[in-house]
Write a structure and sequence with these properties.
- By secondary structure, this protein is α/β, with parallel strands linked by helices.
- The strands form three sheets. An eight-stranded mixed sheet has the order 3-4-2-1-5-6-9-10. A six-stranded parallel sheet has the order 13-12-11-14-15-16, sandwiched between helices.
- Helix 1 links the parallel strand 1 and strand 2.
- The two termini are about 15 Å apart.
- The mean pLDDT is about 95.
Length: about 400
């Protein structure tokens, strides 16, 4: 019997330390592979001493980051300090050595790297020196942009600015060490190719694989509770400019005075007062952090008004799991998931968003979103794990992995 492959994942963070969707997605993939009988490990950064543990069948290696400061402390430092730290990060040989030691202990057949925010791409050199192939999964724009988002105060970036090219210049060279590349959305892959990344990777080894979507408390038999009263719109996510929350609140001001309400769930990246001022006098409630199911059970539909090209849009996937339709911005992965012009509006277009929300008020409570079955089938842990097995099989020459 052929032994299962040994897979080592690497991402900036790993549960229970969660800041965004990337670490959730990586852990779901790793745990699905472990459940299938594979030998799976995950490496990540930690602000403290090195820790090794086992979590849901996955061997977890937490490595001291070796940067000027911990990634969650960036906002407490000046822009100059942050830029200098980003520049130095590119030559973090310490993380290369520490990751090399993890490779030597675990002895993987393949390494799958993910979000490398605050991780030097020197880690790919550690893999190359040991002859281990690397599959890199694009979950953000970190290789192209010092802020990982290709978004700045003036709006979405239309090109790579000089500062970002300088602060990420070694990544352009190191990416040649990657054997195969996957992306959580077509736009994030296309943009990297457009800027000269991964051109050496054969087209058949460039694939789009959506994230796993799973919502606690929502199983296949889930029935959304019936709602009454005013139509309830919802927003779920970080409250920050690139997420388009101000666009949503400005659109809400153009709606009729009654017959609706809006629940905004999430934490503010900066001061929340400007958003509260935009909502003054409207039937808008800031409900703070909410577990997705808790919000979905209370709303008729979700609004995802992001201005930046979100690589995928986890909240949209989660809403579909809960039979909640989504009005989304026609940008990045949000448009890719919804795939229905009737539910898409131009990013940042206040009038268009208000018109679409007003249409919901006229037509009445929406039903489960069209295309839900397509989305759910593509984002089960088993489907995502099978898609990655296909990539690994090609890289390793092991066709039995996809049988």
């Amino acid at each position: 019997m052929t032994r299962p492959p040994r897979v080592l994942h690497l991402s900036s963070l790993y549960p229970p330390h969660i800041v965004g969707g990337a670490e959730r997605s990586v852990s779901m993939l790793a745990e699905a592979q472990a459940a299938a009988g594979w030998s799976v490990a995950a490496a990540c950064l930690t602000p403290g001493e090195a820790v090794e543990e086992r979590r849901n069948g996955v061997e977890v290696h937490r490595m001291p980051h070796g940067n000027d400061f911990w990634l969650e402390d960036w906002l407490s430092h000046t822009p100059r300090q942050r830029e200098w730290a980003k520049f130095k990060q590119q030559a973090n040989f310490g993380i290369e050595r520490r990751f090399g030691a993890v490779i030597d202990r675990f002895r993987p057949d393949v390494i799958n790297t993910h979000s490398l925010v605050d991780i030097s791409t020197r880690v790919w050199h550690a893999a190359g020196k040991r002859g281990v192939p690397v599959v890199h999964t694009l979950r953000d724009f970190d290789l192209l942009c010092a802020a990982s988002s290709m978004y700045r105060e003036t709006g979405p970036c239309t090109h790579r600015h000089l500062k970002c090219r300088i602060l990420t210049f070694t990544k352009q060279f190191d990416q040649r060490l990657v054997t195969a590349v996957t992306a959580v959305g077509a736009e994030v892959l296309a943009r990297h190719l457009r800027y000269g990344f991964f051109g050496h990777v054969a087209p058949e080894r460039r694939q789009v694989i959506w994230n796993t979507a799973s919502v606690d408390g929502i199983a296949a038999s889930y029935q959304k509770p019936p709602l009454s009263g005013p139509i309830t719109f919802g927003y779920l996510g970080r409250i920050s400019p690139e997420k388009g929350v101000d666009t949503l609140l400005k659109a809400a001001r153009l709606l009729p005075p009654t017959g609706w309400r809006l629940l905004i769930a999430g934490a503010a990246l900066g001061p929340i007062a400007p958003y509260e001022e935009l909502a003054r006098g409207l039937p808008v409630e800031f409900v703070g952090f909410q577990k997705p199911k808790a919000l979905f059970d209370r709303i008729d539909l979700l609004v995802a008004p992001s201005l930046w090209a979100e690589p995928l849009g986890r909240t949209v996937l989660e809403a579909y799991q809960a039979h909640v339709p989504v009005i989304g911005a026609r940008s990045g992965g949000i448009a890719e998931i919804i795939a229905d012009d009737a539910w898409l509006v131009p990013p940042g277009d206040v009038q268009a968003l208000a018109d679409r929300m007003r249409r919901v008020l006229v037509e009445g409570r929406p039903t489960s979103p069209a295309g839900r079955d397509r989305v759910v089938a593509r984002t089960t842990p088993e489907a995502v794990a099978a898609a990655f097995a296909g990539v690994y099989a090609d890289v390793l020459g092991r066709s039995e992995l996809v049988q």
